[in-house]
Amino acid sequence: MSGVSRQRGFTLVEMMIAVTISLLIMVAVLTLYLNLRRTGDDMAQTNALIENGRFAVGLLQEDIAHAGFWNGYVPQFDDLTAVDPPADYPQGLPPVCSAFSTWTQQDRTNSVGIVVQTFSGVPAGCAGVVTNLANNSDVLVVRHADTCSPGMGNCDALAAGKVYFQASFCDTDVVPSSGANPFVLDTGGFTLHLRDCNTSAELRKFVVDLYYVRDYAVTAGDGIPTLMRSTFDLSGGATPANALQPAVPLIEGIEAFRVELGVDSLSKTGAALDYQVSPDWDDPAARVTVKNRGDGSPDGSFVHCGAGSCTVNELANVVEARLYILARARTQTAGYSSDKTYALGGSTLGPFTDGYKRHLFTSSATLVNVSRRRQTP
Residues 224, 252: contact at Cβ < 8 Å? Predict the structure, then answer.
């Protein structure tokens, strides 16, 4: 009789051991996956935080670099070729949020002479534009002519009713109450010429940008601080009026920014500035060093403007801005805690215990158009 073949399976104990080992492997793989996903999410948040901060710095630097660009026009008080006492030195702070129809000629002169302003609170009359201002955040205003010709590149075509800047390069042009170097800042009446005194001078759109940080992004209370910008233009209402428009979101995750201003308050010889008289050269023939005009470099400590802004003399002589931008992740990181503090110039923020990662960006921006025209060999 042939032998009987015996079949054997897994015992209950072996099955339990196999299931246990499989579960342990699955737990390890799942843990690895979750850790990788958490690390990936954390890296993505960190990258977005850094990218947003750098974007904000670059955006503000670029606009500040354009401040005081008037398409070749140089205010008389900064014109080192002038022989007469300047008639266009700012006599007061320029309007920020008021409608252009209310501006006087002096307001327009002040706006061309003061091209950067900062505030540590909502500027007077701007409550309808600067809404939900985040704590510890400044308001920055930048003025210049558009950097491209109307209808060219990204520039809008000429449009009736908008405010444009036109400068004269012809000695025979006369514009009442606008100083020895005339310009027109208006919605019409553009009669100035180039050096040939026959060709009409180009119009450039008048640009005013106001930046601030709002304490939400899309919906009030969403908790995502956002860099905002309001621009000067025609309103969309039934009665158009040139003024700063409602602000629009630019970059989410910007929690605060602070601006300190470098003021050119001394001449190359170390003397105080005096704009009530004509330029005083140490050697009128060589014209190398002017004793009563700025040299284009900041002097002394950088200043931070309070809620009422800085003085006229400080703002008319700003040649550099120091930027402090605190960027924050959009979402919290589980288990994250930090005892870091962040120095935004003379202000310190933190430590924060809310689980959000943050990074402080610091940079400087030169007002090229103001600084360069003051420099001498």
Answer: yes
Spatial separation of the C-alpha atoms in residues 312 and 310, rounded to whole Å: 7
Amino acid at 232: F
Closest CA to 208 of 42, 344, 66, 366: 66
Under the banding of pLDDT at 50, 70 and 90, the label for residue 251 is very high
DSSP assignment, residue 259? E
Q: Which residues pair with 206 in a beta bridge?
A: 145
pLDDT, the chain, mean:
91
In sequence order, what are the beta bridge partners of 205?
Answer: 164
pLDDT of 238 > 70? The answer is no
Cα–Cα–Cα angle for 341, 347, 351, rounded to 5 degrees: 20
Note the pLDDT tens digit of each residue in 77-134. 999 988 889 989 999 999 999 999 999 999 999 999 999 999 999 999 999 999 999 9
**What is the tens place of the pLDDT at every residue in 133-151?**
999 899 999 999 999 999 9
Distance CA 305, CA 362 (A): 18
Which percentage of the chain shows pLDDT scores above 90?
A: 73
Cβ–Cβ under 8 Å, residues 168 and 142: no
Question: Which amino acid is present at 219?
Answer: T
Beta-carbon contacts of residue 55 (< 8 Å; ≥ 6 apart): 251
Contact yes or no for 304/298 (Cβ under 8 A) = no
Tokens of 73: 């026009």
Closest CA to 359 of 218, 256, 217: 256
In a 13 Å sphere around the CA of 44, the CA atoms on its Cβ side amount to: 9
Q: How many CB atoms lie within 10 A of CB 354?
A: 11
Distance CA 104, CA 82 (A): 25
**How many Å apart are CA 243 and CA 223, to the nearest integer?**
29
Beta bridge partners of 320: 262, 366
